[in-house]
Amino acid sequence: MYNTKPLPFSEDLEGISKKTIEQHHDKLYVGYVNKSNEIREKLVVLRESGNFEGNATFSELRALKDAETFAVNGVYLHEWYFDLLGGNGDWQKAPNLVKLIEEKWGSMEKGIAYFSACAMAARGWSILAWDMKYGKIKHYNSDIHNQAVWGCVPLITLDVYEHAYFMDYGTDKKGYIQAFWKNMNWEAAEMLLNKVSGITL
Quick one: which of 24, 108, 164, 170 has the most CB atoms within 10 Å? Predict the structure, then answer.
């Protein structure tokens, strides 16, 4: 059972309207939570019936398992995204993550510039992750929810689907990305890093 998580911030964001956040969280994200639960329930019913076929061309089981991955990733990615909002953009609050970014890209400015360029190139998600196979931070783009690298835990998750910014910025995706950094909660990203960085596969 997936439960809707409330927003971790109550104050208005700089450059991202309350209306956008409400539509994004209360409708889109909640919709993914509800669909994830619906799919889960249907899988339980199907499994318990014993009347399932594992056909890779088409079957009810295939359709539900494909939808499950998309919906659950929709839940998790949005939760990671919202968890990073509500901050003041002060990266000094993430000393361990800052050190890794500076080691990889030379400086925070260069690291953020590269991440932002990747986000401009993405159609869905731009993610700085802890790669547990690599044992280091790695940047990945994903155009759809179930296009991911297994063994990676997102540290900075940026939603760049049009629903995240079009109401406020129209086609000015770059302006939205700049607003994201202004509202970035670096402490939240640091906590994630500290939690997962000791894990390697």
Answer: 164
